[in-house]
Amino acid sequence: MAPGSFTARARRGAGRPVTGALYPAADPSAARSRYPCAVIIDSHAHFDPRILRVISAHAGFPFYRGLWAYKGAHPNLYVDLSSPYIDEALARAAVAAMGPERCIYGTDAPYGFHERDGSYDYGEIRGWVERMPVSWAMRERIFSGNLRDIVPALH
């Protein structure tokens, strides 16, 4: 996601989180292709974390390790644990790197884990979170508490 699109979405929904997926630029020589997390996150560092909260889809895939490095400098950075782009091991790595308080359960529906009849299997990703080596209280934060904290309308 280009930095400008986060900015535009943040202005339209002031106070609400902005979510997006990180994808490589079409031009592999472009700076944002090599350093997408730096461009996206640093371009929003001036936003008050109480106003702008950034949720990176798919645990930050495919630039997750680079994204996770920004956790300390940006208290407004979160990741969701959705999609078939990641697996349980990567979801666990995201929780270990970001902390359970910065991770959010997501399904990526209607994409992802479909049953033979075309229905969506919410159990796959839910199972990843249920098996996390964290306390039940932290699992509850991943499932709903973190999102409730950053979206005032959910209180």
Element-level helix/strand string: HEHHEHEHEHH
Identify the strand order in the major beta sheet.
1-2-3-4
**Which outline best applies?**
globular
**Termini gap:** 29 Å
Number of helices: 7
Helix proportion: 25-40%
Q: What amount of the residues lies in strands? A: 5-15%
The CATH class assignment is: Alpha Beta
**Helix/strand/pairing class, anyone?**
alpha/beta
| Mean pLDDT reading | 77
Whole-number count of domains: 1
Low-confidence stretches: 31-36
CA radius of gyration is 15 Å
CATH topology: TIM Barrel
Structure description:
The chain has one domain (3-154): TIM Barrel (Alpha-Beta Barrel), CATH 3.20.20. Helix content is 39%, strand content 8%. The protein is built from seven helices and four strands. Strands 1-2-3-4 form a four-stranded parallel beta sheet. Strand 3, helix 5 and strand 4 (103-104) form a beta-alpha-beta unit. Residues 31-36 have low confidence and may be disordered.
Summarize the structure.
This protein is α/β, with parallel strands linked by helices and 155 residues long. Helix content is 39%, strand content 8%.
Give the key terms:
155 residues, alpha/beta, TIM Barrel, 4-stranded parallel sheet, 4 strands
What topology emerges from the helices and strands here?
Layout: H1 3-12, E1 18-20, H2 31-34, H3 36-42, E2 54-56, H4 64-68, E3 77-80, H5 88-98, E4 103-104, H6 123-130, H7 136-150
Parallel strand pairs: 1-2, 2-3, 3-4
